[in-house]
Amino acid sequence: MPQLIKDLLRIKKLDASLAIFFGIILTSVFGSMLYATKPLAIVGPAEQPPSVKFPLGTDSWGRDLLALLLAGTKNSLRIGVTAALISLTIGLVIGVTAGFKGGIIDSALMLVTDVVLVLPSILIMMLVAAYLRERNPFYVSLIIGATGWPWVARAIRSQIMSLKSREFMYLSKMAGLKDVRIIVEDLLPNMASYIAMAFVLLMSGAMIAEAGLSMIGLGVTKGVSLGIILYWAQILESVRRGMWWWFGPPGAVLVALAASLLLMSTALDEYFSPRLKGG
Amino acid sequence: MKSTALLEAQAVKAYYSTRQGYIKAVDNIDLIIDKGMTLGVAGESGCGKSTLMNTLMMNVKPPLHFLEGTIVLDGKVISKMKISELKNDVWGVRISLVPQSALNALMPTKRIIDFIKDVIRHHTDVSDSEIASRARKRFEELNLPVDSLSMYPHELSGGMKQRAIIAVSTLLNPRLLIVDEPTSALDVSTQKQVLKMLMDLRKTGIIESMIFVTHDIAILRQIADSITIMYAGKIVESGPTEDVLFNPKHPYTLSLTSSVVTPEPEVRERGLASIPGEPPDLLDPPEGCRFYPRCTKSMSICRSVEPPLKSEGAQLVACHIASGDG
Amino acid sequence: MNPFIRFLARRIAFQITTFIIFLLVIFALPRVIPGNPLAVILNRIYQEARATPELVRTVEKMLMKEFGFGKPMHIQFYEFVGRLLKGDLGTSIAFYPRKVADLVIVYLPWSLGLLIPATMVSWIVGNLLGALAAYKRKTTVDNALLPVFLTLSQTPYYWLAMILLYVFAVTFRIFPLGGAYSRLMFPSLTLRFVLDMLRHYVLPFSSIVIAAIGGWAIGMRSMVIYELGADYVSYADSLGLPDSKVLRYVFRNSMLPQVTGLALNLGLMLGGSLITELVFSYPGTGYLIFRALSTLDYPMIQGTFIFLISTLLIANFIVDLIYVYIDPRVRTSYVGE
């Protein structure tokens, strides 16, 4: 294990992306704790461009945009992680069950997967979110997580199916080990690298989805996130009124987070499947 | 160059460059293919035989590099040719290589006849209908169903695909055909069909000379005139088939032949012997004989001095023991 | 049975199943959430629109009739499907008394006019760029393009829209600030109108295209790199086929998964372009949906979503048709099904 970590850290792409990603996380977590101004507090004149006092300016209510950005990033990350974990769990359970059991169970599960896959997650999320009056971060994570898992399930299923026919599987089955034990001890470790990549990609998608939902007013009902800052920016016409300090930074942070996560997964992918290196 | 030789390779070195150094897959090889000869090349996986085959037709692309040596084909020095020249005049036209695992070698989204048209159209100025009739004729000659031409590769069975790809490789009438492990992925009855096809190619004169690469030495008895044994990037023994199989001089050849179950009682008597140990790392091969660590008969000179290929009886052997050195 | 037809029949069956499941979901949603949605809507209309009590009662009657609140569930569903088959998507509350279907017909063309060309352009150009990057991998071209594509692929459509709007309409007043045409103009087939429309079209169109290109490019690049290592590539090469020919083979085979990818991404692109419309105040279905969602105009929400999903499923089917046509393996492999 330690050798693996050492090898991984030697990959430049991985280092760069990890640096950016964790840099943002640490800044937002510690920043929101240390920065004196409370995000939702009205602290100054409205619609001020960046200055020494307000490094990212103020919004139409006179709130400090830097404070909002720090808190918002933290919340977006939190929702992203939760949603990714939910999607990962659902995808793993369905994928492993379908791949392992095969037959009718497989066909049924894949039908469900395909239906969820076809229906555009954004629209479904909008639909469900609209009907919920109170939306707390967990509900939002749940909605996002419940629509993002199909590709994971499919991928896990094909991995399981190809692993199933390998030798060590016959040995375990012959030894009479229970199914669950075979799954946990033999199959999952082989897929650990893929699960890691899937999580990274899920998280990236989840954060963008959260921002999308919030953008149209269907995000968390209380609190702030990157998407919610953009939502306020949109309905108060910040773009047309030239307040770049309002809508610019949240999107930029979102892009940085998502891009670094994607870079991370690409680097992991290249490391674990050499054919993509194109050597 | 010998007048009877079709292809002559001298002192050829081809290495793979990797971050850790050069992998010496083809290390100072001399090889002659005579006109009308079928040469069997045998050795275990990783000994460099496939690399050698690619090198012989100068299909050398990074990370593989052609370091030294000369290869002369039919009077032309192909080792000095550029890729564009090779593509136009040599590949497919004078030498064809049927790769290992032919199962995916045919273009999956084109009908076989369409792929054939692409290949032939590039080399000659012939009408489509002429190409189609040539292809049909060749398939008939080789006992392949003509309607498989209008099918897609995935519609054919494994054995059919293997035979089809051999047939396609002969369409430009190359003088030398190299087949790399054509029977490894097939069951015994399909193997027979493929072997028969290759022998037909020789008999009808469509192909003049052939190189048959395999790790299964028993097959070579049926098809090869002479056999070359490779080990760890080097040729260790070569000579007429009967001599190499029944009177092997190199300890490695001996262990290869004795691990084969054949009906001949004199071979079976030697018993099944599997060779313990692993071939050497080609990144940093040992100074002396490369088989030394696994050899049961070695002497002290074997460890420090690389044995040269010397004539012993009917064969060429690279072994101190066989040559009686030390 | 012709395997071709068998495959398509299977796909149609799947899409119909999906549609039915979706119908069930959309039918059930407003009826299962706690609280009385009807009261909420009516209350809001009363307060926000400061409507007269008669108007509120009319709306209430309409809702009761159309939603059938009070009748047993299966009758509600039966009536719901019945109306649907007649093309009646209900009556909007926010735009009362206009019918949802009528509104959709008006706004839909603007959405499609953005989405369809943008999808096609981004898909084609993205794939070409991706193939180029793969062919020149590890050279400066690839090394420069890859991070660009990477970042672009992760840029939310709407944020890119904001940036473009800010740069090209606010800072450098090259393009208008929004809408599909100048407020002073009336839609007509005159050249003047068409030019004006195009002027308003550029930014929203470019925003969707640029946002989508990155993803296609990266996907195609990986596919081509992968295919370049395939056995058929080295074999064709060893028979003397020139690079240009071999590349055409690779491109052809790499396109196949990209076509499937198109089907899968249609939903995503749809969502993204709807939110982009919002930023540009473009009068498309996005406007309808967001109006509906924020005012909880249930009939409108229901109607527009049903419409969008059906369009999506039809588009999926068209992509299936195209895929079957271009991949010979699918046509023949269904013999055994």
Terminal Cα span of chain C? 11 Å
| Nearest-integer average pLDDT of chain C | 84
Uncertain residue segments of chain C: none
Contiguous helical run count of chain A: 11
Radius of gyration of chain A, rounded? 22 Å
Largest interface: which pair? A-C, 45 and 59 residues
Morphology of chain A: elongated
Helix content of chain C: over 70%
User: What characterizes the major β-sheet of chain A?
Assistant: none
**Structural class by SSE content of chain C:** mainly alpha
> Overall pLDDT of chain A, averaged?
84
The percent range for strand residues of chain C is: under 5%
Q: Please identify the oligomeric state.
A: heterotrimer
Strand content of chain A: under 5%
User: Tally the helices of chain C: what do you get?
Assistant: 13
Low-pLDDT residue spans of chain A: 275-279
Which radius of gyration of chain C do the C-alpha atoms yield?
A: 24 Å
Verbal overview:
The complex is a heterotrimer of chains A (279), B (326) and C (337). By secondary structure, chain A is mostly helical. Helix content of chain A is 73%, strand content 0%. Chain A contains eleven helices and no strands. The longest helix of chain A is centred in the first third of the chain and has 37 residues, at 65-101. The radius of gyration of chain A is 22 Å and the shape is elongated. Chain B has one domain: 3-Layer(aba) Sandwich (Rossmann fold). In chain B, α6 links the parallel β7 (176-180) and β8. In chain B, α3 crosses α4 and α5 packs parallel to α6 (188-203). The longest helix of chain B is centred in the middle third of the chain and has 16 residues, at 188-203. By secondary structure, chain C is mainly alpha-helical. Chain C has helices at 3-32, 37-48, 53-67, 73-85, 100-135, 140-153, 157-171, 191-228, 231-238, 243-280, 285-295, 298-326, 328-333. The interface between A and C is large, with 45 and 59 residues.
Please tag this protein with its features:
heterotrimer, B: 326 residues, alpha/beta, Rossmann fold, eight-stranded mixed beta sheet, four-stranded antiparallel beta sheet, C: 337 residues, mainly alpha, 13 helices
Q: What layout of secondary structure does this protein have?
A:
The complex is a heterotrimer of chains A (279), B (326) and C (337).
Chain A: H1 2-9, H2 12-34, H3 65-101, H4 103-118, H5 121-131, H6 137-147, H7 150-164, H8 167-174, H9 179-215, H10 226-235, H11 244-272
Chain B: E1 5-18, E2 21-34, E3 38-42, H1 49-56, E4 64-73, E5 76-77, H2 83-90, E6 95-98, H3 112-123, H4 128-141, H5 158-170, E7 176-180, H6 188-203, E8 209-214, H7 217-223, E9 226-231, E10 234-240, H8 241-246, H9 251-258, H10 265-269, H11 300-304, E11 310-312, E12 315-317, H12 320-323
Parallel strand pairs in B: 3-8, 3-9, 6-7, 7-8
Antiparallel strand pairs in B: 1-2, 1-4, 4-5, 9-10, 10-12, 11-12
Helix pairs in contact in B: 3-4, 5-6
Chain C: H1 3-32, H2 37-48, H3 53-67, H4 73-85, H5 100-135, H6 140-153, H7 157-171, H8 191-228, H9 231-238, H10 243-280, H11 285-295, H12 298-326, H13 328-333
